[in-house]
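// run 5 | inverse folding | seed 20
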């Protein structure tokens, strides 16, 4: 008679078991009494086949490997893209990620891979891919920047260079002619108790971009803004670089159609906001402001450019995001609509924002007595006092 071995599995549809019930020393009688436990009789040949099939499955998955190219481009989580980028060797793909990824950390990792000495052999200024050519120019231009800060600053300025390399921008302003950088070390001393002195280091980073049809270079310098106080373990404070600042001249002279393209489609929020600030198309701004799936900062920026009082009141009363509602209230001037919001809006934060702009003393007195939230009542009383003191 063939020997058999018993295996038990738990049916998730029933209640979980405690460790004592599932131990190997539990009696068969105990096991049979427990709900959700089913016994399978398996001879040694069947068990061997099960182990063999499992091993083959593992080996197959390992042989297939992970598609790091696809993961680096399409993964939603930043950490997943970071892991994938570190596995890449394709220069075209790394250049694309360095220029286009929404995460500065991912862009910086791609730049580090590209600036690695082993990778540099594959990057030339004559490459067929425009992204690789651009990265090549950037790496050469950043020679004055210390190696330990180089990848970070390259990742920070690449969104601006991507904008300047866009075909529509090139047709309006010409190609990038040259890129120059400069970097210097700066210090700040902090005095503690007694004679203790702590020195914190920072940086001064300069970027200059010459564009063919612009009369002057796009130049800007970022300097570390040292905090008033620092912790003992702080040794270096980075300058806060926002390269959308350097694009002001370009955005100011850009056509409305090109601005709309960047405002609607660019992956970098700072670029989108910079383009949006210069849009004049009211229909487009209205569409962005009403789009509940749009990023909050983009919607607020669009709302700041709206003047239609009825539209703003509708947003304030109906939008599910209270911050968007408050942004709409801040642009309202119509006292009748502000009164309606102060009395009827479902968000008390929004009602309070409307109260702070009211001038009708009777309405304010009513709100100070009747609103369900003491914060709104208090805001109404404060507004009344401010009006009476004038």
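// decoded
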């Amino acid at each position: 008679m063939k020997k058999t071995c018993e295996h038990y599995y738990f049916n998730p549809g029933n209640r979980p078991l405690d460790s004592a019930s599932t131990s190997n020393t539990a009696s068969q009688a105990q096991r049979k009494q427990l709900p959700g436990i089913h016994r399978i009789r398996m001879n040694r040949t069947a068990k061997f086949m099960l182990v063999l099939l499992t091993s083959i499955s593992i080996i197959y998955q390992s042989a297939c490997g992970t598609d790091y190219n696809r993961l680096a481009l399409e993964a939603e989580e930043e950490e997943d893209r970071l892991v994938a980028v570190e596995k890449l060797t394709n220069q075209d793909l790394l250049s694309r990620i360095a220029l286009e990824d929404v995460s500065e950390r991912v862009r910086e990792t791609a730049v580090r891979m590209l600036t690695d000495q082993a990778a540099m052999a594959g990057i030339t200024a004559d490459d067929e891919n425009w992204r690789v050519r651009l990265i090549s120019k950037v790496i050469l231009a950043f020679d004055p920047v210390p190696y330990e800060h180089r990848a970070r600053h390259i990742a920070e300025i690449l969104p601006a260079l991507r904008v300047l390399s866009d075909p529509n921008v090139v047709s309006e302003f010409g190609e990038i002619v040259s890129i120059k950088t400069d970097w210097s070390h700066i210090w700040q001393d902090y005095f503690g108790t007694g004679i203790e002195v702590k020195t914190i280091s920072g940086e001064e980073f300069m970027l200059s971009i010459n564009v063919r049809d612009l009369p002057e270079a796009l130049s800007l310098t970022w300097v570390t803004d040292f905090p008033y106080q620092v912790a003992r373990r702080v040794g270096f404070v980075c300058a806060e670089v926002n390269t959308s600042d350097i694009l002001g001249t370009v955005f100011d002279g850009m056509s409305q159609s090109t601005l709309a393209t960047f405002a609607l489609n660019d992956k970098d929020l700072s670029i989108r906001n910079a383009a949006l600030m210069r849009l004049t198309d009211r229909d487009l701004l209205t569409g962005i402001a009403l789009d509940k799936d749009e990023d909050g900062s983009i919607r607020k920026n669009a709302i700041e450019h709206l003047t239609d009082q009825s539209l703003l009141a509708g947003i304030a009363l109906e939008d599910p995001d209270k911050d968007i509602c408050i942004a709409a209230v801040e642009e309202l001037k119509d006292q009748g609509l502000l009164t309606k919001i102060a009395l009827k809006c479902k968000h008390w934060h929004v009602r309070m924002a409307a109260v702070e702009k009211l001038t009708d003393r009777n309405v304010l007195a009513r709100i100070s007595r009747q609103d369900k939230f003491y914060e709104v009542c208090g805001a109404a009383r404060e507004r009344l006092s401010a009006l009476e003191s004038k």
